[in-house]
Amino acid sequence: MVGAVDAVGAGGSGAGRSGARRFRTALAHAVLTTLLALSLVGGAAGWASASGEAVAGGPPPGTAAWRADDSFGGRLPDPVTASPAEVAAFFAGLSGPQRHRLVAAHPGVVGNLDGVPVALRYEANAAAGPHVLAYDPRGRGLVARVVGDLDTATHVAVVVPGSDIDLASSARLRRWATDLREAAGEETAVIAWAGYTTPHGIGADLATGRLAEAGAKRLTRFTEGLDAAGLPAPALFCHSYGSVVCGLAASRTAARDLVVMGSPGMRADNVAALRTGAHVWAAESPHDLITHVPHTEFLGLGHGPDPTSPGFGATVLPATDVPAHDAYFTPGTSTLTAFGAIAGGALR
Fold first, then answer.
1. Statement: the pTM of the whole predicted model exceeds 0.85
2. Residue 45 falls within a domain, yes or no?
Protein backbone atom coordinates (compact mmCIF):
# COMPACT_ATOMS: atom_id res chain seq x y z
CA MET A 1 0.00 0.00 0.00
CA VAL A 2 2.88 2.39 0.74
CA GLY A 3 4.34 1.70 -2.69
CA ALA A 4 1.04 2.57 -4.38
CA VAL A 5 0.80 5.84 -2.50
CA ASP A 6 4.42 6.67 -3.32
CA ALA A 7 3.65 6.13 -7.00
CA VAL A 8 0.85 8.65 -6.82
CA GLY A 9 3.13 11.08 -5.02
CA ALA A 10 5.84 10.69 -7.66
CA GLY A 11 3.76 11.27 -10.74
CA GLY A 12 0.28 12.33 -9.66
CA SER A 13 -1.36 15.61 -8.87
CA GLY A 14 -0.33 18.03 -6.15
CA ALA A 15 -3.23 16.79 -4.08
CA GLY A 16 -1.97 13.24 -4.57
CA ARG A 17 1.54 14.18 -3.50
CA SER A 18 0.14 15.98 -0.47
CA GLY A 19 -1.95 12.94 0.41
CA ALA A 20 1.08 10.68 0.11
CA ARG A 21 3.07 12.91 2.44
CA ARG A 22 0.23 12.91 4.95
CA PHE A 23 0.01 9.13 4.76
CA ARG A 24 3.76 8.69 5.32
CA THR A 25 3.70 11.17 8.17
CA ALA A 26 0.75 9.42 9.81
CA LEU A 27 2.40 6.03 9.37
CA ALA A 28 5.67 7.20 10.90
CA HIS A 29 3.75 8.79 13.78
CA ALA A 30 1.81 5.58 14.41
CA VAL A 31 4.99 3.49 14.49
CA LEU A 32 6.76 5.95 16.78
CA THR A 33 3.75 6.23 19.06
CA THR A 34 3.56 2.46 19.39
CA LEU A 35 7.23 2.17 20.30
CA LEU A 36 7.16 5.05 22.76
CA ALA A 37 3.92 3.96 24.38
CA LEU A 38 5.20 0.43 24.83
CA SER A 39 8.35 1.88 26.39
CA LEU A 40 6.20 3.34 29.18
CA VAL A 41 5.72 -0.16 30.59
CA GLY A 42 9.10 -1.49 29.53
CA GLY A 43 10.98 -0.69 32.72
CA ALA A 44 13.79 1.75 33.28
CA ALA A 45 16.76 -0.47 32.61
CA GLY A 46 17.94 1.53 29.61
CA TRP A 47 17.72 1.15 25.88
CA ALA A 48 18.01 -2.34 24.47
CA SER A 49 20.57 -3.00 21.76
CA ALA A 50 19.52 -2.45 18.18
CA SER A 51 19.66 -6.17 17.49
CA GLY A 52 17.38 -6.99 20.45
CA GLU A 53 17.75 -9.61 23.13
CA ALA A 54 19.46 -12.91 22.39
CA VAL A 55 16.75 -15.55 22.67
CA ALA A 56 17.33 -18.36 25.13
CA GLY A 57 16.84 -21.61 23.33
CA GLY A 58 18.41 -24.88 22.44
CA PRO A 59 19.13 -27.77 24.78
CA PRO A 60 19.67 -27.52 28.55
CA PRO A 61 23.17 -27.03 29.98
CA GLY A 62 25.17 -30.25 29.94
CA THR A 63 23.36 -31.76 26.97
CA ALA A 64 26.55 -32.87 25.19
CA ALA A 65 27.57 -35.09 28.11
CA TRP A 66 23.99 -36.38 28.44
CA ARG A 67 23.90 -37.40 24.79
CA ALA A 68 27.25 -39.15 25.12
CA ASP A 69 26.15 -41.16 28.19
CA ASP A 70 25.60 -44.80 27.16
CA SER A 71 25.82 -46.27 30.64
CA PHE A 72 22.16 -47.30 30.50
CA GLY A 73 22.74 -49.52 27.50
CA GLY A 74 21.33 -47.08 24.97
CA ARG A 75 20.72 -43.44 24.28
CA LEU A 76 19.03 -41.24 26.81
CA PRO A 77 15.98 -39.24 25.62
CA ASP A 78 17.17 -36.35 23.49
CA PRO A 79 16.42 -33.06 25.29
CA VAL A 80 15.43 -31.38 22.04
CA THR A 81 13.48 -34.02 20.13
CA ALA A 82 11.92 -36.17 22.87
CA SER A 83 8.45 -35.04 23.95
CA PRO A 84 7.72 -34.50 27.65
CA ALA A 85 5.50 -37.59 27.54
CA GLU A 86 8.42 -39.65 26.18
CA VAL A 87 10.71 -38.27 28.87
CA ALA A 88 8.17 -39.15 31.56
CA ALA A 89 7.85 -42.70 30.19
CA PHE A 90 11.62 -43.14 30.22
CA PHE A 91 11.97 -42.06 33.85
CA ALA A 92 9.01 -44.22 34.86
CA GLY A 93 11.00 -47.24 33.68
CA LEU A 94 14.05 -46.47 35.83
CA SER A 95 14.77 -47.71 39.32
CA GLY A 96 15.27 -45.26 42.18
CA PRO A 97 19.07 -45.63 42.17
CA GLN A 98 19.17 -45.13 38.39
CA ARG A 99 17.16 -41.92 38.65
CA HIS A 100 19.40 -40.47 41.33
CA ARG A 101 22.49 -41.47 39.36
CA LEU A 102 21.24 -39.42 36.43
CA VAL A 103 20.59 -36.46 38.71
CA ALA A 104 24.14 -36.64 40.06
CA ALA A 105 25.72 -37.04 36.63
CA HIS A 106 23.56 -34.56 34.67
CA PRO A 107 21.89 -32.02 36.97
CA GLY A 108 21.67 -29.36 34.26
CA VAL A 109 19.64 -31.61 31.99
CA VAL A 110 17.49 -33.38 34.60
CA GLY A 111 16.68 -30.09 36.31
CA ASN A 112 15.41 -28.45 33.12
CA LEU A 113 13.93 -31.35 31.17
CA ASP A 114 10.15 -31.15 30.91
CA GLY A 115 8.58 -34.50 31.71
CA VAL A 116 11.04 -35.39 34.48
CA PRO A 117 9.27 -36.09 37.81
CA VAL A 118 8.99 -32.99 40.00
CA ALA A 119 10.96 -34.44 42.92
CA LEU A 120 13.93 -35.22 40.66
CA ARG A 121 13.91 -31.72 39.20
CA TYR A 122 13.95 -30.30 42.71
CA GLU A 123 16.87 -32.57 43.56
CA ALA A 124 18.81 -31.55 40.47
CA ASN A 125 18.28 -27.84 41.13
CA ALA A 126 18.79 -27.98 44.91
CA ALA A 127 21.97 -25.85 44.75
CA ALA A 128 19.80 -22.98 43.45
CA GLY A 129 17.33 -23.25 46.33
CA PRO A 130 14.26 -25.26 47.38
CA HIS A 131 11.35 -26.01 45.06
CA VAL A 132 13.22 -24.93 41.93
CA LEU A 133 11.60 -26.58 38.93
CA ALA A 134 14.02 -25.16 36.35
CA TYR A 135 17.31 -23.30 36.54
CA ASP A 136 19.56 -22.16 33.71
CA PRO A 137 22.20 -19.55 34.62
CA ARG A 138 23.33 -18.90 31.07
CA GLY A 139 22.87 -15.38 29.69
CA ARG A 140 20.33 -13.41 31.73
CA GLY A 141 19.22 -16.69 33.26
CA LEU A 142 15.95 -18.62 33.45
CA VAL A 143 14.26 -20.00 36.55
CA ALA A 144 10.95 -21.52 37.66
CA ARG A 145 10.12 -21.66 41.37
CA VAL A 146 7.15 -23.32 43.04
CA VAL A 147 5.17 -21.81 45.89
CA GLY A 148 3.17 -24.54 47.59
CA ASP A 149 3.17 -28.32 47.25
CA LEU A 150 2.82 -29.71 43.74
CA ASP A 151 2.55 -33.25 45.09
CA THR A 152 -0.70 -32.56 46.93
CA ALA A 153 -2.10 -29.58 44.99
CA THR A 154 -5.55 -29.94 43.50
CA HIS A 155 -5.03 -26.76 41.47
CA VAL A 156 -1.95 -25.36 39.72
CA ALA A 157 -1.31 -21.82 38.52
CA VAL A 158 1.59 -20.47 36.47
CA VAL A 159 2.55 -16.78 36.53
CA VAL A 160 4.03 -15.66 33.18
CA PRO A 161 5.84 -12.30 33.50
CA GLY A 162 6.36 -9.43 31.11
CA SER A 163 9.47 -7.37 30.43
CA ASP A 164 12.63 -7.07 32.54
CA ILE A 165 12.17 -10.32 34.45
CA ASP A 166 15.09 -12.74 34.51
CA LEU A 167 17.13 -14.71 37.02
CA ALA A 168 18.44 -11.58 38.76
CA SER A 169 15.01 -9.94 39.07
CA SER A 170 12.89 -13.04 39.64
CA ALA A 171 12.28 -12.24 43.33
CA ARG A 172 9.53 -9.83 42.26
CA LEU A 173 7.84 -12.61 40.27
CA ARG A 174 8.07 -14.96 43.22
CA ARG A 175 6.36 -12.35 45.44
CA TRP A 176 3.48 -12.25 42.97
CA ALA A 177 3.27 -16.05 43.05
CA THR A 178 3.32 -16.02 46.86
CA ASP A 179 0.53 -13.44 47.02
CA LEU A 180 -1.52 -15.40 44.48
CA ARG A 181 -1.09 -18.62 46.43
CA GLU A 182 -2.16 -16.95 49.68
CA ALA A 183 -5.28 -15.65 47.92
CA ALA A 184 -6.02 -19.05 46.35
CA GLY A 185 -5.48 -21.25 49.40
CA GLU A 186 -3.26 -24.14 50.44
CA GLU A 187 -4.71 -26.58 47.92
CA THR A 188 -3.19 -24.50 45.09
CA ALA A 189 0.46 -24.53 44.00
CA VAL A 190 1.74 -21.54 42.05
CA ILE A 191 4.75 -21.58 39.73
CA ALA A 192 6.71 -18.37 39.17
CA TRP A 193 7.85 -19.07 35.61
CA ALA A 194 10.72 -16.85 34.42
CA GLY A 195 11.24 -19.39 31.69
CA TYR A 196 11.70 -17.27 28.57
CA THR A 197 13.79 -14.33 27.42
CA THR A 198 11.75 -11.23 28.22
CA PRO A 199 12.23 -7.80 26.60
CA HIS A 200 14.89 -5.84 28.44
CA GLY A 201 14.94 -2.08 28.73
CA ILE A 202 13.30 0.16 26.15
CA GLY A 203 13.45 -1.02 22.57
CA ALA A 204 11.71 -2.59 19.62
CA ASP A 205 11.41 -5.99 21.34
CA LEU A 206 8.47 -4.61 23.31
CA ALA A 207 6.54 -3.81 20.15
CA THR A 208 7.21 -7.02 18.21
CA GLY A 209 6.35 -10.67 18.73
CA ARG A 210 9.87 -12.05 18.27
CA LEU A 211 10.55 -12.86 21.91
CA ALA A 212 6.92 -13.83 22.53
CA GLU A 213 7.03 -16.44 19.77
CA ALA A 214 10.11 -18.07 21.31
CA GLY A 215 8.55 -17.78 24.77
CA ALA A 216 5.32 -19.40 23.59
CA LYS A 217 7.24 -22.49 22.44
CA ARG A 218 8.94 -22.76 25.82
CA LEU A 219 5.66 -22.22 27.71
CA THR A 220 3.93 -24.86 25.61
CA ARG A 221 6.61 -27.43 26.35
CA PHE A 222 6.63 -26.48 30.04
CA THR A 223 2.88 -27.04 30.40
CA GLU A 224 3.19 -30.31 28.48
CA GLY A 225 5.75 -31.32 31.10
CA LEU A 226 3.31 -30.53 33.89
CA ASP A 227 0.73 -32.73 32.19
CA ALA A 228 3.27 -35.53 31.68
CA ALA A 229 4.08 -35.36 35.40
CA GLY A 230 0.40 -35.97 36.18
CA LEU A 231 -0.38 -32.47 37.46
CA PRO A 232 -3.75 -30.71 37.02
CA ALA A 233 -4.27 -28.47 34.00
CA PRO A 234 -2.92 -25.06 35.04
CA ALA A 235 -4.41 -21.62 35.15
CA LEU A 236 -2.04 -19.21 33.38
CA PHE A 237 -1.70 -15.69 34.80
CA CYS A 238 -0.03 -13.55 32.16
CA HIS A 239 1.22 -10.04 32.90
CA SER A 240 1.94 -7.34 30.31
CA TYR A 241 4.19 -8.73 27.50
CA GLY A 242 3.62 -12.15 29.06
CA SER A 243 0.06 -11.95 27.75
CA VAL A 244 1.49 -11.85 24.22
CA VAL A 245 3.36 -15.07 25.05
CA CYS A 246 0.20 -16.67 26.41
CA GLY A 247 -1.84 -15.54 23.42
CA LEU A 248 0.57 -17.22 21.02
CA ALA A 249 0.70 -20.38 23.15
CA ALA A 250 -3.04 -20.56 23.86
CA SER A 251 -3.97 -23.05 21.16
CA ARG A 252 -1.16 -25.44 22.16
CA THR A 253 -1.59 -25.60 25.92
CA ALA A 254 -4.17 -27.47 27.97
CA ALA A 255 -4.68 -24.56 30.36
CA ARG A 256 -8.06 -24.49 32.12
CA ASP A 257 -7.95 -20.70 32.58
CA LEU A 258 -6.07 -17.95 30.79
CA VAL A 259 -5.87 -14.69 32.75
CA VAL A 260 -4.23 -11.59 31.27
CA MET A 261 -3.58 -8.28 33.00
CA GLY A 262 -2.07 -5.01 31.81
CA SER A 263 -2.01 -6.51 28.33
CA PRO A 264 -0.74 -4.73 25.20
CA GLY A 265 -2.67 -7.35 23.20
CA MET A 266 -2.54 -11.09 22.60
CA ARG A 267 -1.85 -11.17 18.84
CA ALA A 268 -5.40 -12.34 18.31
CA ASP A 269 -8.50 -10.45 17.21
CA ASN A 270 -10.74 -12.08 19.81
CA VAL A 271 -11.14 -15.08 22.10
CA ALA A 272 -12.25 -17.32 19.24
CA ALA A 273 -9.01 -16.56 17.38
CA LEU A 274 -7.01 -17.85 20.35
CA ARG A 275 -8.40 -21.34 19.58
CA THR A 276 -8.33 -22.42 23.21
CA GLY A 277 -10.72 -24.31 25.43
CA ALA A 278 -9.57 -22.26 28.42
CA HIS A 279 -11.78 -19.64 30.03
CA VAL A 280 -10.21 -16.30 29.08
CA TRP A 281 -10.20 -13.49 31.67
CA ALA A 282 -8.77 -9.98 31.37
CA ALA A 283 -8.02 -7.10 33.74
CA GLU A 284 -6.81 -3.58 33.08
CA SER A 285 -6.50 -0.85 35.68
CA PRO A 286 -7.41 2.74 34.71
CA HIS A 287 -4.16 3.69 36.49
CA ASP A 288 -2.06 1.43 34.27
CA LEU A 289 0.25 3.10 31.73
CA ILE A 290 -0.71 0.30 29.31
CA THR A 291 -3.88 2.29 28.63
CA HIS A 292 -1.69 4.64 26.53
CA VAL A 293 -0.55 1.83 24.25
CA PRO A 294 -2.28 1.78 20.83
CA HIS A 295 -4.08 -1.56 20.59
CA THR A 296 -3.25 -2.14 16.96
CA GLU A 297 -0.97 -4.31 14.87
CA PHE A 298 0.68 -2.95 11.74
CA LEU A 299 3.70 -4.29 9.83
CA GLY A 300 4.60 -6.51 12.77
CA LEU A 301 4.46 -3.71 15.34
CA GLY A 302 1.91 -3.78 18.16
CA HIS A 303 -0.03 -6.72 19.53
CA GLY A 304 -3.64 -6.25 18.49
CA PRO A 305 -6.93 -5.52 20.28
CA ASP A 306 -7.30 -4.81 23.97
CA PRO A 307 -8.41 -8.06 25.68
CA THR A 308 -10.68 -6.03 27.99
CA SER A 309 -12.57 -4.45 25.08
CA PRO A 310 -16.21 -5.59 24.68
CA GLY A 311 -15.64 -7.11 21.27
CA PHE A 312 -12.76 -9.32 22.36
CA GLY A 313 -14.95 -11.70 24.33
CA ALA A 314 -12.94 -12.19 27.53
CA THR A 315 -14.54 -12.06 30.95
CA VAL A 316 -13.42 -8.71 32.35
CA LEU A 317 -12.29 -8.65 35.99
CA PRO A 318 -12.46 -5.66 38.39
CA ALA A 319 -9.24 -3.63 38.51
CA THR A 320 -10.15 -0.06 39.48
CA ASP A 321 -8.28 -0.36 42.78
CA VAL A 322 -5.03 -1.52 41.18
CA PRO A 323 -2.66 1.48 41.51
CA ALA A 324 -0.09 0.74 38.79
CA HIS A 325 1.03 -1.52 35.96
CA ASP A 326 3.01 -3.85 38.23
CA ALA A 327 0.44 -3.95 41.04
CA TYR A 328 -2.17 -6.49 39.90
CA PHE A 329 -1.09 -8.98 42.58
CA THR A 330 -1.29 -6.41 45.40
CA PRO A 331 -2.92 -7.94 48.50
CA GLY A 332 -6.29 -6.42 49.30
CA THR A 333 -7.20 -5.48 45.73
CA SER A 334 -10.36 -6.80 44.12
CA THR A 335 -8.19 -8.06 41.29
CA LEU A 336 -6.06 -10.34 43.45
CA THR A 337 -9.21 -11.61 45.18
CA ALA A 338 -10.60 -12.61 41.79
CA PHE A 339 -7.27 -14.12 40.75
CA GLY A 340 -7.23 -16.24 43.90
CA ALA A 341 -10.74 -17.51 43.21
CA ILE A 342 -9.77 -18.45 39.66
CA ALA A 343 -6.51 -20.14 40.69
CA GLY A 344 -8.28 -22.05 43.44
CA GLY A 345 -11.08 -23.22 41.15
CA ALA A 346 -13.84 -21.27 42.93
CA LEU A 347 -14.52 -18.90 40.02
CA ARG A 348 -15.31 -20.47 36.66
1. yes
2. no
